[in-house]
Design brief:
Radius of gyration: 19 Å
Largest sheet: 10 strands, mixed
Shape: globular
Number of domains: 1
CATH superfamily: Vaccinia Virus protein VP39
Strand content: 15-25%
Helix content: 25-40%
CATH class: Alpha Beta
Distance between the termini: 38 Å
Number of helices: 8
CATH architecture: 3-Layer(aba) Sandwich
Number of strands: 10
């Protein structure tokens, strides 16, 4: 999603959304920084292509395996390219680009290409944490399979930070496309699949559905919150008047999320993205 052209979020207000997306990226970076564990850990990042979470985690001193979903039939990976205790032994279904690993300051990042929704190249219980930002689970319609893979690679006590498209976003897109019959069915649907103008389909979640997805994978959900509470119009208004106020806006956003209801307890979800933190029981 970009602010250019006909945005699916045009229903949220007129004008460019460039200021809001700049604010959104700053909030995501601050939320990740608050979640990152202390010390030097092995993290698996399966975030979507717009996320910079892997580089941020590596810059913070962690060892990061960045998973990119590749077309079917990739070439075999070299086991030596993966961190020692992340290897399955005979690594299958993944390919490591020859120019990698990259080595950001303070940490190490290795990028692997894997079959969609599969983490078969990683050993069970190898990861201290998994980052699934930029709607990673929403991009896989069988999100249950990917959630189970996340639970498998996490060690006992390992942590997950995950972001998905919310029902609010899905309903806004359906309304903009005049899909009124589909919009009427959303409150009663167990699975909500939303077509985007570019032909892709993503899966949108309410807070209760999001909790069920992670719980059924065997994870303990710590909290579920909207990624942002401040509206695009509010952010745009403040930044037009004071372009340098983004840091203050981010602090206000983090405080609002911490003090407000944590999405999972609300009757209806709010915010266009939902963010969850979960832990594998130890």
């Amino acid at each position: 999603m970009t602010a250019a052209g006909a945005s699916p979020l045009a229903v949220l207000g007129s004008g460019s959304l460039a200021a809001y997306w700049r604010f959104h990226r700053a909030v995501a970076a601050a939320q990740l920084a608050a979640w990152l564990p202390a010390g030097r850990r092995l993290l698996v990042d399966i975030s979507g292509p717009r996320s910079g979470s892997a580089a941020q985690a590596a810059a913070a001193g962690h060892r990061v395996v960045r998973v990119r979903w590749a077309p079917a039939g990739p070439e075999p990976a070299r086991a030596g390219d993966l961190p020692r205790y992340a290897r399955t032994g005979a690594v299958q279904g993944a390919a490591v680009p020859p120019a990698l690993p990259q080595r950001p300051a303070g940490g190490r990042m290795v990028t692997v290409a894997a079959e969609p929704a599969s983490l078969a190249c990683l050993a069970g219980g190898c990861a201290d944490g998994v980052i699934a930002d930029d709607s990673a689970l929403s991009r896989h319609l069988m999100a249950e399979d990917l959630a189970a893979e996340i639970a498998r690679v996490l060690r006992p006590g390992g942590e997950l930070l995950c972001c998905v498209d919310s029902l609010v976003l899905g309903m806004a897109i359906l309304a903009e496309q005049h899909r009124w019959a589909h919009l009427t069915d959303v409150p009663h649907a167990e699975v909500v699949l939303v077509p985007w103008p570019d032909g892709t389909i993503t899966r949108c979640f309410g807070a209760a559905q999001f909790r069920d997805l992670l719980t059924e994978a065997g994870l303990d959900v710590r909290w579920i919150r909207p990624r942002t509470v401040l509206s695009p119009s509010t952010v745009d208004h403040v930044l037009r008047r004071e372009p340098g106020a983004i840091a203050r806006l981010v602090r206000a956003e983090l405080a609002a999320c911490a003090q407000g209801p944590a999405g999972d307890d609300a009757d209806e979800p709010f915010g266009i993205y939902l963010l969850a933190a979960a832990r594998k029981p130890g």
